[in-house]
Queue: 2 jobs
Job 1
Amino acid sequence: MEHSSSARELIERAFGQAKRSGKPEWWVMAIPVLKNRLLQITGQTFKESHFGASTFREFLLNNTDALEIDNSFLPGAVTLKSAERLPPSHDISSPQRNRIREDLWRAILDYSSGNRYVWDTESSAAIIAPEGSEGPFFPTISPETMTEWKTAFLGSMPQSPDDGRLKVWQTQSLPTNALPPALRSQWNRFVKQKVQSALREWFESQRIPSPPLVHPAIPPEKHDETALFREFLIKCIAQMSKEELEKLSIPSSVAFRVNSSR
């Protein structure tokens, strides 16, 4: 049996691979996709038994110091705990994903530091206001405004999920990672729209030519999350017996598309 630190190292390498690819929300991964990435980085030699586990679920449970496991939906997801940040979806270490510039993002959302921000014309950037500055200051939100945004976000959903974590996240100063993984992308898009709107209104009201608010996008990576999941499922099907295949459930819409393509 290998030491647990080796397992953690492999897990972090798998998430690091997703981060380097520019994948949005690289720190959250479907459980089957994580296993597929572990197989990739080990040259298909990864086995749970090498780490004292009989199943991949057991392997995950043995590494909850590194992973947060969410089984509230199928096939489940894991979050790399060491990647938590505020706000996680706008870490601009990979700016190619059409993200708001970090200086402008902080000028609107950095309410916890107590800093105020002004526009520096020489560097064309939002900076912390020098001592004695009279502005004009960026409209940095307050904690109350963030709570209002969270309330509006949950209210905009067609059906509010029955999950106690949402109330805690809504009323406390918790980051995006406190949300169920299925809602994180939606929340990040919601906040991005709010920030962009606040920035456009501020630049217009101050009669300051607005700079590009986001980093330019580039084409997504060739092997995205869906492709990796599909590859994993194909490998599973190749290993299934006749009896196991007969139990396989295929949506009628998929069967229709396959038959139509013949």
Job 2
Amino acid sequence: MKKNIYLFILFFSLLSTQLYAKGNLMILKLKYGAVEIELYPEKAPNHVKRFKEFSDEGKYDNVVFHRVIDGFMAQTGDVKFGKSDSPDFNLNLAGTGGSELPDLNAEFSDIAHTRGTLSAARSSDPNSANSQFFICFEAAPHLDRQYSAFGKVIKGMEFIDMIKKGDPNSGAVKDPDKIISLRSK
């Protein structure tokens, strides 16, 4: 009897872990291939909620990677000026816009900014993140507990590495790559 109870508990634990992970996995499609991202709602619930909402509504589709610094990070998510199929698209303004929703309060955590970390982009105000985000190419410990990290690339980082790099100083990208689609898995 005890053996059956232990087996039931083990089975239920594995099943619930799988279901939890499924609800927090995203697929980012780039022209180079598909990237799988795991989100951490227990660390940054409001950032995850906004990211999933915008993703599943298609708001990130066709948004350019407007700032890409080799060895550091690739930034995207400007749904106002960075959406290449929008009448408001303006590459010179990409990175200055956001959504119509209010900015998010910081959700700093113990998540380290390592290779593949997904984090909220913001201005110098810690509570100014809105729609923009970045993915780290390499570890960036100076960002730890200064930016709201809320996920990590778990498959396809080689496709993130292929994103067109920008100016070595500013990161500005001429003829940038873009998100084809971004959805929950």
